[in-house]
Amino acid sequence: MKLFIILIIFISFHIIIPLPSLSQSTLSRMDNLLHDELTTMYAADQKAREGLTAEIMSEDSVRMKKMAQGDYMRTKWLKQIVDSIGWPTKAMVGTDGLMAAFIIVQHSLDYEWQDSVLPFIKKQAMDGDLPKEEYAMLQDRVLMREGKPQMYGTQFTVAHDSQVVYQIEDPQNLDKRRKEMGMLPFYLYQRMINYMYKSKLDTSSVQSKKASNAQSMPDCTGK
User: How do the domains of the chain map onto residue ranges?
Assistant: First the structure.
């Protein structure tokens, strides 16, 4: 199986993430233009991932390359925004605009920039402006890329055409940490992954390795 680009992923049971609706009065207090641009970028991100399956990801390298190119362009655009006005806030772009910005970061291949905005995303998650599980998934992705054990069990690699759970820090307390982030117990999450990809998830221990040396599955879930 040959992929044009190695993407670091996280897998969720959500195929498409609906954005919350906003009242007109709320929109009038925000930066309407930035809000609209973010939600437009979000729609393009979701469309690129619509209908993708594990089989398509492994066989349709042209489509995967096109998806990666889209992620690159959206990252470039958002980086320019952040360089100009800073990381967007809920007051500026609303809940849906903030989620759209997060999705662009989540799918970004600019790992240095992804790391640089992680503290802003963490603070917004802890303040209740973003769901905590979103921060948890991005944190796992960063840890995996650094070759460190993940904390919440959201990251998977591909080994011998099977999905394998990337190694987990202190697995005995995994569900406790997931609960703190508002996430389902891991056994239910595992069942959903098995159903989504029509295959059995390998939860055996995985040796630590740099993500750049591991072949990982592209994120087709919309997150």
Answer: 28-130, 156-213
